[in-house]
Amino acid sequence: MTLKQWDIETGKEIRSFIGHKNWVTTCIITPDGKRLISGSLDNTLKQWDIETGKEIRSFIGHKNRVTTCIITPDGKRLISGSWDKTLKQWDIETGKEIATIELLWYVNDIKFSKTNPNVIITANANGTLTSLDLSKYL
User: What contacts 127, CB < 8 A, 6 or more positions away?
Assistant: First the structure.
């Protein structure tokens, strides 16, 4: 499937990011503005070079659709949520999985706490919110 970058002012397509094998469900731009990370129903995340549209790497390890992703404030780690009932922490530079956090629910969204950069809040498919300290899972 394809992710597209558009010029907001002209409405013209700038480039396509082609590589996922199913619908793209989430995306985020790295803090330096140079890379894009997308998650998909194909159970993977991909990192792209925004200037060229080329795939840099894939993050493979989820067993079900990737529904959400965020990047740590320092820009070094990617956190992904999936309907395999896990959160995964990844090293953005190498693509290696750092940790898996097993959950009891499907994750729909993740946000960082405004008061503690190690704490995330998950919005879950069962209508609950959960707070987790990522530093406990390194």
Answer: none
3-class state of residue 134 by DSSP: helix
Answering whether pTM is above 0.90, one says: yes
CATH 2.40.128.630 fits 2-105, yes or no: yes
Element (H, E) at 7: none
Alpha carbon distance 104, 31 (integer Å):
31
Q: Which long-range contacts link 3-11 to residues 24+ away (Cβ below 8 Å)?
A: 3/27, 3/36, 3/38, 3/48, 5/50, 5/53
Domain locations along the chain = 2-105
Predicted confidence (pLDDT) per residue in 74-122, tens digit: 899 999 999 999 999 999 999 999 999 999 999 999 999 999 989 999 9
